[in-house]
Fold:
Amino acid sequence: MNVITRKRGLAGLALLGAAGLLLAGCSAAPTASSTAKSVDFKGCAVSDEGSWQDKSFNEAAYEGLMKAKTDLGITTADAESNSTEDFDPNLAQMVSAKCDLTFAVGFNLIDPVNAAAAANPDFNFVTIDGSVTDAAKTPNLKAINYSMAQSSYLAGYLAAAYSTSKVIGTYGGLDIPAVTEFMEGFYYGAKAYEKETGTAVKVLGAPVGGGGTFTDPGKSFGDTEGAKTISAGQIADGADVIFPVAGGLFSATAEAIKESGKPVVFIGVDKNIAVTSPEYKDLVLTSVEKRMTQAVYDVIDDTIKNGFSSKAYLGTLENDGTDLSDFGAFDSKVSDEIKDKLKTLKAGIIDGSIDPLK
Amino acid sequence: MVESTLHERTGEEVTTVNATQGLAAPVAIDVPRSWKTPIVLGVLALIWLICFGIFGDARTVAFGWSDTSDAIVLPDFVVNSKTFCLTIGILMLAIAVVATWLASQRRKVPMWLIIPFGVLLVWSLVGWVGAGGRVPVEFLLTGALALSTPVVFGALSGVIGERVGVVNIAIEGQLLIGAFAAAVTGSITGSLTLGIIAAMIGGALVSLVLAAFSIVYLVDQVIVGVVLNALAIGITNFLYASVLNDNSAEYNFPGTLPFLPIPFLSDIPVIGGVLFNQRITTYAMFVLVPLVYVVLFKTKWGLRIRAVGEHPLAADTVGINVKRTRFWTVTVAGMIAGLGGGALTIGSVGAFVREMSAGQGYIALAAVILGRWNPWLAACAALLFGFSRNFRIWAGQAGSTIPSDLIAMTPYLVTLIAVAGLVGHARGPAAAGRPYIKQ
Structure:
């Protein structure tokens, strides 16, 4: 094949590739819902570092937005952030898209969303897992938070009760309050079991009294190998229930469990892992749910009906914003006694007699 | 006789230059004394002696060589942490003194002194952190090996690529695509062998693009590599979001390669479990490191590869097809990196997680330089990175007071110190990074 033919051939291939890419972009957009009603409301969301399909945190918020789209008929727009530098531009993009309500998903967006809310007083923002730094300056910013310590407390108690070796472990994907709240609640729940029954319970990796086990700071929620090593180490130290607070890294923990050959289980976070990832359901004791889907939907619904309110929303055991999911494959293995005890603890937390962070 | 430039530059140690003989009376040229290495060794030895020996922890530390479940159970080595660190500190100081003497003799400090120094350094650090508890030696070693596997593969790929003259920045992308291909193919076909083959093909595809653009179309190699990394991240993220996430049971659940213990050797107390009870990807790594060294330095092809990387014009004059050699060598390098990516998924955790290569491709490049473009040393450097990652995890578990972030910083600090102090004048293949344009 001489040079000219080869060049033409390569050019043809390149043209084919470019055409394919173009046509893929021209493919039909996801069809809008078939419900007759449609409301003139645009709900938008900016993700934390990661994607809308991380099987936990960001995905739950995104699903709330999509549910509002199908059920309430709103239009939506969204922006995935790949790194912290994308936060400000993504929020600005939502403003220029004339969004009626923009959700900033995640703790890392606190500063960008407060700045965006202050700079754009005509647009409304919601920060999930964040806080309003100066309510007077930003009446257009609402905060959605969750008392994850409450449901993690229940999880800790359950783990301590279920465990035979009375050694349980936890680790986090990033050393931020949103993550450590899970781990602290877990610790105190386990210690509550210890106080009550008098059996010593060892909690590995909890950030109480300094320290706490986290994955490689540079790799955080993508550190599969580190997560697996951490889990293997905790299993080698005798842990038979592990609580990985690290997004999608529970798959690495599951692999460590399989490799050890021991009957260890893990507890999921944010969503019911036994349902979203059924291939792991035999290892999932329960999940500590952060019901962001419902919260996002409710806030959109409320804003459409009653207008924007900057009153902070706190998801608790009481308003079903967070809770333990069902025990799935382990329902028969958790005794009725423990189930009743969990109900009592839940009531105690709701009425304030039990503090999940003590 | 002036020794050939090729031999001089690709040898591991810089040989002293001999003046031309036979013309007049031989004139010996004195090589200037290099005090860098002894100073670094001495300072480190003193710091270690003072911090961990004199101000050390007086509790006992038990080095646990075996688990109760092993075939041969060795008793733990229990020793007082302070005395242990003092002894090791003195040994390290002795090595530093020997290095000083060698430097005063204008001789280079050999690697077989530096590597034991490093081992002693690590051992005393472990002994200090583990004071008051038990040090699970086998766990530390297996963990270090597991954490360094993809970096070793990446480093081998980098060494081969740079030796032939193509800077392979796209190792990160090759690892990622290899991991993705292995996970998805393994899930769909149910066969892990096909997964491994798919991983190698995936890595080769990425390197084919790199080769095509940098060798044939003369685009800057570094730029192509960086773009390929971004492309790999984009493609895998897109496919993960659109296909894998919703159907994870069908497309992202390949399982993992089985462990293949070698009958008698895997029962050896400490190293048995580490070296002889591994998956096929780790065994492949054990084989590839010496294989790459032998091929590069002891065979005809290796000589041609290195010639192309050092002086392509000379190689071309002799009759070696420079472009073809570079093209195929880069493809092989891509296959090795792809295999490393496969080790990330089906060789370790099974399912694919977004951006799971997490910068290890770039660390592999650092390992290549730290290892002075030598497969053995690059693999050692990669092991060092893997060990420090494992050390951070274990130190946290052992309740060490050293802040976790500080430990996470150590491998990069070590690279800086090592490259500045120990590696010395690191000269890579002369023609690396420059495309060859045939006149």
